[in-house]
Automatic annotation (TrEMBL):
Family stated for the protein in its record: Belongs to the multicopper oxidase family.
Organism: Medicago truncatula (Barrel medic)
Keywords from the named record: Glycoprotein, Signal
Source species, domain of life: Eukaryota
Pfam families hit by this protein: Cu-oxidase (PF00394), Cu-oxidase_2 (PF07731), Cu-oxidase_3 (PF07732)
A molecular function (GO) term: copper ion binding
Domain Plastocyanin-like intervals: 31-143, 157-298, 379-519
Biological classification of the source: Eukaryota, Viridiplantae, Streptophyta, Embryophyta, Tracheophyta
Database matches in SUPFAM superfamilies: Cupredoxins (SSF49503)
Alphabetical list of InterPro entries matching this protein: Cu-oxidase-like_N, Cu-oxidase_2nd, Cu-oxidase_C, Cu-oxidase_fam, Cupredoxin
Gene that this sequence comes from: 11443040
Protein name: L-ascorbate oxidase-like protein
Region forming the signal peptide: 1-20
Coiled coil spans: none
Amino acid sequence: MGRGAVLAFMLCLLGVTVYGEDPYIYYTWKVTYGTISPLGTPQQGILINGQFPGPEINSTSNNNVVVNVFNNLDEPLLFTWHGVQQRKNSWQDGTAGVQCPILPGTNYTYKFQVKDQIGSYFYYPTTGLQRAVGGFGGLRIFSRLLIPVPYADPEDEYWVLIGDWYGKSHKTLKMELDSGRSIGRPAGVIINGKNAKGDGSDEPLYTMKPGKTYKYRICNTGLKDTLNFRFQGHGMKLVETEGSHVVQNVYDSLDVHVGQCYTVLVTADKEPRDYYMIASTRMTKYNLLGKGIIRYTNGKGPASPVLPPAPVGWAWSLNQFRSFRWNLTASAARPNPQGSYHYGQINITRTIKFVNSVSNVNGKLRYAINGVSHVDPETPVKLAEYYGVADKVFKYNIISDEPPTDLKAITIAPNVMQTTFRTFIEIIFENPEKVLQSYNLGGYSFFAVAGEPGTWTPEKRKGYNLLDAISRHTIQVFPKSWAAIMLTFDNAGMWQLRSEHAEHRYLGQQLYLSVESEEKSTRDEYNLPETQLVCGIVKDMPRPPPKYV
């Protein structure tokens, strides 16, 4: 027994509680350009340690994750950890509102804890349109060993990163948006960075042993389109969605909206040969499709060219959304059942209605929330707030809790809304447009309690699921429909609410929620890290004393 263990044992005998820091895991990333060919034609992509998609982050609940990022690109870089709540630590969220960019030729070390979370997530670069050419990868959080999961251990588990693909450089796409035009339709769909040709030359993405069950972590990392994902000849048992164990139903296919992740179990119980996994666009005027091969280890014969069809219409997708239910008896990331949190019995203290819109401003395309199209100031809004110079960078609350009457009159400005710490808030998303919307809220998971066609009224609360709605971080809003979420704002910081559609987000369909604790305590929020990059008007200012004690 080592000296440290002996000391800990002696302290325990004396009745002294010993606190150990949670384990650390370390990664070093070298981010470069490189040649990739997702759709068969060579193009420049963004690689991490020479890989596309990027390397997996493999963690366990409560691990401290340290990622040292070396930016070898010719432009600034940031990474966000999509779905990781960054408890008390919005400094590490990797968006332009909280962090100065990592400049070319420099490095920055992210340090964050995957506190009280489990599930399937992904990371990606948030600067400009960089996600359009790579830099994304899977981030998984296992349950701690002492906390059971509601299914048997699979034989193995695999990532399935699906997304639409434009085949253009991110700089070209950015120029198109900056000129006031849309980036239009994508060129194809990829699965794990490629698309099977189907001519017999394709190597399998993964193999399965007959009779064994495998876990697949499926995330839509694309820019625009909902994708329907399905296995040829195999059902998928849904077990987890964005950190929540769910009631385990079997689905022939799943609509995966941009930014969303699902974890499924697939059993190799069919004739031993090759099978396709398929991802195809949904609710679009075009039909694009990506394929990947799954091979039985004792398989003989190619995959059938007859592919299972995708569903038609968005009503099917809405009904599937309604079928998802929280598993109330399964353990959460902490040693208590998910259903021990009775969100439906909490009084709502505030209702915010967000309505998206699109219009031309000075001849250029802009997207907005409640009439304001967000732009990032040179000084990140969180830094300005911490340094006490927010009034020189942006104005709080230029939008209200209700949308304006004229949604076509768009104001371009930083969009920062204040919320009160630890209040329980209802947020309504209304989508008057003909295209589906997908929203992510950083720093939180929320209860997706309802979604219906039409416009929202208070009477719609009668139809809310107040018992077992899934707790998740990304919600879709169907065309000419609304969706309702509920959450407690118990994570102090500056958090981005963003459209997951790259064009919409880049052209303003985002905002920041400032959640400050009146206690000014490090129990609620961490101070500015010593290593945090500074820029804008605070670059040459004296570093302020700790704000929280």
